[in-house]
């Protein structure tokens, strides 16, 4: 196979193109989660009482800590993007590792939360823990809960993988000048994952709690 | 092959609409194919008449605006015509005969107010409005009567309504038109329109297991509803509603929905309230007991009977108005 | 290897530069990926067509001629799913689109060449999953997967099929992102937006739908699978869910998806009509923006599939009105094509015949779409063969014709060889007649009330069904014929010049077939699209001179 010319005019052109591509991909992600949020919009309205019952059984404590973790992680990574722009490889790796570390902590906590909920029979199905006339709505809430947190968790995993890859390639390429573009592209994605959580948090833990 | 009969006034009106659509389509097709042919004949290479492309291009704006606005106008007229017919077509008149139709993989069960029942057949009288209350026991079906130009999806745990006034005696096919599994094409039946006298005879000859409401009353007692709910208007203790709300005068009244919003008690509401699904009254706390769910206990036919019975407890409201399965409830 | 009359161009071209299998499977050249896609979707088309053949054979008899009810249900489900997701949605974008977008932009490749290759692998995996599911167990839900049938009642293989369709969605999104970014970023110097060929406007609009509608399908399928496995009640009324929610979500994707299945065809037809009339497209800007407005308004009309499903009357009225509105831009296109023909120098080569077939059959399909958008008449016609005829007129009569028009038109560019013109015209004519014979009777069947998805039917419908089946066999010929002569032309066809049709697009300025890097010398654009005056009397501007071979 022949060596293929890259379709770009210049490195700058290439970087712009990659970042535009990521934005467009995120637009598509918004609609992915948008479809899921429709479930929330519909059922939290038509089955409000049961929905609220479900919300009251989530673990606000873990949810709150996780929100803080993720916000910090996003901030850490932003510092990494800054470092990349200043061609500071060490800064990128440091920021990347702390962002990924916070992300992993988030996932561990989330896993623990899932574990307790499964143990409490909060997974919808025949043995569902909450009874009474509002059980149906609460089950719908927990369907939404497990699905949305699973989907978000999957995005976190991908994000952590990407950050790991950034750290690795920065580490390997220490001697050459640092290219900021991949760091920024991953940064966009990571902020998006963070943003989704910021929207999920009130929906899963707050609205209907009081 | 016979041409499809139009067995109601509505069917005739739909045919006129279809005729209108057909005429417009033929005109447009004539225009499109005509212009295509003319262009080919006149401008084919070989028979070439030189025309300056510039002059044509310059006039383009005027053409664009002209055909866009004409198309818009035609479309708007068609839209209004068809929408009006549809909205009217789905609003049942008062005093219609209510017939319950239940779809099930793969048959139609039909119940009459007098308690008669049949499968895959529907008898109706000529010239009287009939309202079908449709529900399903499993998946989504669709009840379609081409001769009347009407159909509606039949959803599980919900009532949908269709109404018509047949104007032609005879037998017409009805179909299930929503794919519902492998027996879908076998889920058909016959609509039989009888003269009022024949209809009365038919009702008389068909063995009935008590009227629907009577059967409902038996079920009401048998299933223990009467243990909590008051249902006899003038009996001693008729005002004892400490255990559960009274059924007297309930139908057609307003009550509190699950979210504290006011909802109207109609067939669909009763259906859900008994099964304890979507719309349970938001006032559970006010009573000494908790209503058990009858999901899985009562079949759709039983529910139809119970609802018919509960309706009889509100005689003044049994006018038929607003008795549709209220499509507006499903607006979400 | 094949003998060529001009070995030099051939060897330099993307086709023969490196002939190893490995170089094909790992290629990032958009032109080779287009060919990989072409091979895959052709296979799926054959598969889906065999399904159609069995359907039509079965329906010759009112009691069903050859299949059991169950097999019949599986057959139309397979036919619908394969035809929609594995053939028609990808068809023009991933083959002609992939091949042409960089060429029309004057660029060496798409913006993300590796993503392009990945999207092909995703597509192949998706296809494999779907085929596995459909043949190891099968599925009987129709292509629409309505709940609760698909979640709680079917015995079929929901999971692999749904997973396959889900994956194919990712492949679509990747293609969409690639096209949009390429069109924004990789235009040749001088190629302003209003100089873009209309094909690119159409593909741009298509890509917008790919990117924004497909994820909704993805999440819907995830919900469906979740519900199917755990029975949690999201769509199950028995557990308090709402089955209509599924329909809303599904059609929110699938209505825009029908425009995915027509816009690229409209792009092809704009190119072909202009070339074979040797005249600029009438009302260029209107045609361009009508593509965008179809894509935009197309997101707002999904409810017209649910007029009898149990939504509110109010919603039905609004959706009906919007459905009429979305038809206006299609009307604009039809009239502008006719305007283009007026005063041109019309040549009736095979691509033009297919394009004219498109205009006629699409108009019939679109007009019958209006029957369905009209509320009261839809109540009578919905879920009958009228709907089946409506969408085949647009998807087969329209889009498949457009695909064939494009294939014939760009065949010389893709392969460097001409197809046999006489046979091309014969096949086009055969397609038109076979098609009408197959599907016109279905309008009558629908009006008479014959429901769709019926394995058996009342005897009074037999005559029309037999007519339809007879038509399908002619249609089959019209598909097999090009298959044969295209393969023949690959080895024996006359050698094509760089611009056999006297067309204006940038793709015609490079050799046929193009070199791997597309243009030896990067092109500079100095004219509007479809500027035949400049083509016929080239100004002595040296930098606009094509690298002739
Ligand atoms: C490529 C695919 C494609 C395209 C482009 C369209 C285009 C249109 N479709 Fe179609 N449709 C389908 C594929 C497609 N459809 C499929 C697959 C289904 C069935 C799904 C299923 O249930 O399995 C379906 C079903 C379907 C329904 C639901 C039917 C039902 O199930 O009850 C409706 C209802 O409104 C509809 C309407 C329309 C309209 C108004 C257009 C318009 O965009 C058409 C616009 C075009 C024109 C109108 C023609 C050109 C215009 C002129 C020449 C102007 C002059 C005209 C006048 C002045 C009158 N379609
Ligand atoms: C998107 C593209 C597409 C295409 C191209 C087609 C092509 C065809 N379709 Fe299809 N069809 C759909 C999409 C498509 N269809 C969809 C979405 C449905 C709805 C499914 C559902 O309800 O869920 C449907 C449903 C559908 C039905 C309704 C089934 C029912 O409701 O019960 C029918 C019935 O006639 C039908 C017929 C045909 C025919 C005759 C063709 C013809 O064009 C095909 C002609 C071809 C042949 C007759 C065979 C040719 C053979 C070869 C090319 C093979 C080569 C030969 C050898 C290997 C020896 N289709
Ligand atoms: Cu019941 Cu189809
Ligand atoms: Cu649609």
Automatic annotation (TrEMBL), chain A:
Q: Which GO terms describe its molecular function?
A: cytochrome-c oxidase activity
All copies of the Heme-copper oxidase subunit III family profile domain together span: 21-209
* Similarity comment: family membership: Belongs to the cytochrome c oxidase subunit 3 family.
Q: What is this protein called?
A: Cytochrome c oxidase subunit 3
The primary site where this protein sits is membrane
Keyword check for Cell wall biogenesis/degradation:
no
InterPro entries this protein is in?
Answer: Cyt_c/ubiquinol_Oxase_su3, Cyt_c_oxidase-like_su3, Cyt_c_oxidase_su3-like_sf, Cyt_c_oxidase_su3_a-hlx
Its ancestry begins with: Bacteria, Pseudomonadati, Pseudomonadota, Alphaproteobacteria, Acetobacterales
Recorded source organism is Acetobacter garciniae
The family database entries (SUPFAM superfamilies) matched by this protein are listed as:
Cytochrome c oxidase subunit III-like (SSF81452)
The biological process GO terms on file are: aerobic electron transport chain
What are the alphabetically sorted keywords of the record?
A: Membrane, Transmembrane, Transmembrane helix
Q: Name one GO cellular component term.
A: plasma membrane
Transmembrane region(s): 20-40, 60-80, 92-112, 144-168, 188-207
Q: How does it sit in the membrane?
A: Multi-pass membrane protein
Q: Spell out the subcellular localization from the entry.
A: Cell membrane; Membrane
Looking up PANTHER family in the UniProt record yields: CYTOCHROME C OXIDASE SUBUNIT III, NITRIC OXIDE REDUCTASE SUBUNIT E
**A Pfam family assignment:** COX3
TrEMBL record, chain B:
Do you know which InterPro entries this protein is assigned to?
CcO_II, CcO_II-like_C, Copper_CuA, Cupredoxin, Cyt_c-like_dom, Cyt_c-like_dom_sf, Cyt_c_oxidase_su2, Cyt_c_oxidase_su2_TM_sf
Reading the lineage from the top rank, the first entry is Bacteria
Is the Lipoprotein keyword given for this protein? no
Which Pfam families does this one have?
A: COX2 (PF00116), Cytochrom_C (PF00034)
Enumerate the spans annotated as Cytochrome c domain.
Answer: 211-314
Gene field: coxB
Protein name as annotated? cytochrome-c oxidase
Q: Which reaction does this chain catalyze?
A: 4 Fe(II)-[cytochrome c] + O2 + 8 H(+)(in) = 4 Fe(III)-[cytochrome c] + 2 H2O + 4 H(+)(out)
Q: Which GO terms describe its molecular function?
A: copper ion binding; cytochrome-c oxidase activity; heme binding; oxidoreductase activity
State the organism named in the record: Acetobacter garciniae
**Annotated transmembrane regions:** 16-38, 65-87
TrEMBL record, chain C:
Q: How does it sit in the membrane?
A: Multi-pass membrane protein
- Give the species this sequence originates from: Acetobacter garciniae
Q: Does this UniProt record's set of keywords contain Metal-binding? A: yes
> Could you tell me which residue ranges the Cytochrome oxidase subunit I profile domain spans?
10-526
What SUPFAM superfamilies does the database record attribute to this sequence? Cytochrome c oxidase subunit I-like (SSF81442)
Q: Which domain of life is it from?
A: Bacteria
**What name appears for this protein in its UniProt entry?**
Cbb3-type cytochrome c oxidase subunit I
A GO cellular component annotation here is: membrane
Q: What Gene3D superfamilies does this protein's entry cite?
A: Cytochrome c oxidase-like, subunit I domain
């Amino acid at each position: 196979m022949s060596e293929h010319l890259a379709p770009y005019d210049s490195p700058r052109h290439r970087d712009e193109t990659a970042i535009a591509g990521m934005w467009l991909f995120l637009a598509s992600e918004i609609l992915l989660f948008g479809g899921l949020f429709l479930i929330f919009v519909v059922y939290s309205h038509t089955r409000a009482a049961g929905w609220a019952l479900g919300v009251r059984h989530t673990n606000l404590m873990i949810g709150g800590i996780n929100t803080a973790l993720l916000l910090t992680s996003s901030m850490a990574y932003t510092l990494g993007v800054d470092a990349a722009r200043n061609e500071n490889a060490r800064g990128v790796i440091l920021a990347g590792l702390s962002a990924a570390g916070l992300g992993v902590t988030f996932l561990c906590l989330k896993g623990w939360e899932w574990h307790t909920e499964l143990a409490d029979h909060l997974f919808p199905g025949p043995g569902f823990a909450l009874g009474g006339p509002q059980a149906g709505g609460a089950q719908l809430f927990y369907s939404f809960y497990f699905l949305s947190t699973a989907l978000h968790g999957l995005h976190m995993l991908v994000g952590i993988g990407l950050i790991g890859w950034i750290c690795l390639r920065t580490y390997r390429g220490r001697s050459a000048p640092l290219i900021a573009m991949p760091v920024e592209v991953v940064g966009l994605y990571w902020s998006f994952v963070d943003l989704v959580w910021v929207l999920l948090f009130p929906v899963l833990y707050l609205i209907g709690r009081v | 092959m016979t041409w499809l009969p139009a067995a109601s006034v509505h069917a005739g009106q739909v045919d006129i609409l279809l005729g209108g659509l057909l005429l417009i389509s033929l005109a447009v097709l004539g225009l499109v194919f005509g212009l295509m042919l003319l262009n080919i004949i006149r401008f084919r290479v070989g028979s070439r008449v030189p025309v300056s492309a510039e002059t044509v291009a310059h006039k383009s704006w005027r053409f664009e605006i002209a055909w866009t606005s004409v198309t818009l106008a035609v479309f708007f007229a068609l839209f209004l015509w068809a929408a009006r017919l549809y909205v009217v077509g789905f609003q049942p008149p008062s005093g219609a005969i209510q017939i319950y139709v239940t779809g099930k993989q793969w048959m139609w069960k039909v119940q009459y107010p007098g308690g008669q029942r049949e499968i895959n057949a529907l008898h109706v009288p000529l010239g009287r409005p009939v309202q079908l209350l449709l529900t399903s026991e499993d998946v989504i079906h669709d009840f379609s009567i081409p001769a009347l130009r009407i159909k509606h999806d039949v959803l599980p745990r919900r009532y949908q309504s269709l109404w018509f006034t047949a104007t032609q005696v005879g037998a017409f096919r009805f179909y299930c038109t929503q794919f519902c599994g492998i027996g879908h094409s076998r889920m058909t039946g016959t609509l039989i329109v009888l003269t009022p006298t024949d209809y009365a005879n038919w009702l008389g000859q068909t063995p009935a297991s008590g009227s629907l409401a009577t059967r409902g009353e038996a079920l009401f007692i048998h299933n223990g509803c009467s243990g909590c709910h008051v249902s006899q208007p003038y009996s001693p203790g008729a005002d004892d509603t400490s255990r559960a709300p009274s059924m007297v005068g309930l139908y057609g009244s307003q009550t509190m929905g699950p979210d504290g919003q006011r909802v109207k008690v109609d067939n669909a509401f009763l259906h859900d309230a008994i099964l304890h699904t979507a719309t349970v009254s938001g006032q559970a706390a006010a009573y000494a007991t908790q209503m058990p769910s009858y999901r899985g206990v009562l079949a759709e036919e039983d529910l139809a009977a119970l609802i018919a019975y509960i309706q009889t407890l509100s005689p003044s409201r049994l006018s038929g108005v607003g008795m549709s399965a209220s499509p507006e409830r499903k607006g979400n | 290897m094949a003998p060529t009359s001009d070995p030099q161009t051939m060897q330099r071209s993307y086709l023969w530069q490196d002939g190893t299998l490995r170089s094909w499977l790992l290629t990032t050249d958009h032109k080779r990926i287009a060919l990989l896609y072409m091979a895959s979707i052709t296979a799926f088309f054959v598969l889906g067509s065999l399904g159609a053949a069995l359907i039509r054979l079965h329906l010759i008899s009112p009691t069903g001629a050859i299949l059991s009810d169950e097999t019949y249900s599986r057959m139309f489900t397979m036919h619908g799913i394969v035809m929609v997701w594995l053939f028609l949605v990808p068809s023009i974008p991933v083959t002609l689109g992939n091949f042409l977008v960089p060429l029309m932009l004057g660029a060496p490749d798409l913006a993300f060449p590796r993503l392009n290759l990945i999207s092909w692998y995703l597509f192949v995996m998706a296809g494999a999953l779907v085929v596995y599911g459909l043949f190891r167990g099968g599925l009987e839900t129709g292509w629409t997967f309505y709940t609760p049938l698909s979640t709680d009642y079917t015995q079929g293989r929901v999971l692999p099929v749904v997973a396959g369709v889900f994956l194919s969605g990712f492949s679509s999104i990747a293609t969409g992102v690639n096209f949009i970014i390429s069109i924004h970023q990789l235009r040749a110097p001088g190629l302003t937006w209003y100089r873009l060929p209309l094909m690119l406007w159409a593909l741009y609009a298509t890509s917008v739908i790919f990117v924004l509608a497909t994820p909704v399908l993805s999440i819907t399928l995830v919900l469906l699978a979740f519900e199917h496995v755990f029975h949690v009640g999201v769509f199950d009324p028995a557990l308090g869910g709402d089955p209509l929610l599924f329909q809303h979500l599904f059609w929110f994707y699938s209505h825009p998806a029908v425009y995915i299945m027509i816009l690229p065809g409209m792009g092809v037809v704009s190119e072909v009509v202009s070339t074979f009339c040797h005249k600029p497209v009438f009302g260029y800007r209107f045609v361009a923006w009508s593509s965008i407005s179809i894509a935009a308004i197309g997101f707002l009309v999904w409810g017209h599939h649910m007029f009898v499903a149990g939504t509110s009357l109010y919603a039905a009225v609004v959706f009906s009105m919007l459905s009429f509105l979305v038809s206006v831009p299609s009307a604009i296109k039809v009239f502008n094509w006719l305007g283009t023909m007026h005063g041109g120098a019309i040549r009736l080569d095979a691509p033009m015949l297919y394009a004219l077939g498109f205009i006629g059959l699409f108009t019939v399909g679109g007009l019958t779409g209006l029957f369905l958008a009209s509320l009261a008449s839809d109540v009578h016609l919905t879920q009958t063969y009228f709907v089946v005829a409506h969408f085949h007129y647009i998807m087969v009569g329209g889009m498949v014709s457009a695909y064939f028009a494009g294939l014939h038109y760009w065949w010389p560019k893709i392969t460097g060889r001409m197809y046999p013109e006489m046979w091309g015209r014969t096949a086009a004519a055969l397609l038109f007649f076979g098609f009408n014979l197959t599907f016109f009777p279905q309008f009558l069947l629908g009006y008479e009330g014959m429901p769709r998805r019926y394995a058996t039917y009342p005897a009074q419908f037999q005559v029309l069904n037999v007519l339809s089946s007879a038509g399908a066999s002619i249609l089959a010929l019209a598909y097999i014929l090009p298959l044969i002569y295209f393969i023949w032309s690959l080895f024996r066809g006359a050698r094509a010049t760089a611009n056999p049709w006297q067309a204006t697009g940038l793709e015609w300025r490079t050799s046929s077939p193009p070199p791997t890097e597309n243009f030896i010398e990067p092109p500079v654009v100095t004219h509007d699209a479809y500027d035949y005056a400049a083509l016929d009397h080239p100004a002595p501007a040296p930098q606009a001179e094509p690298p002739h071979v």
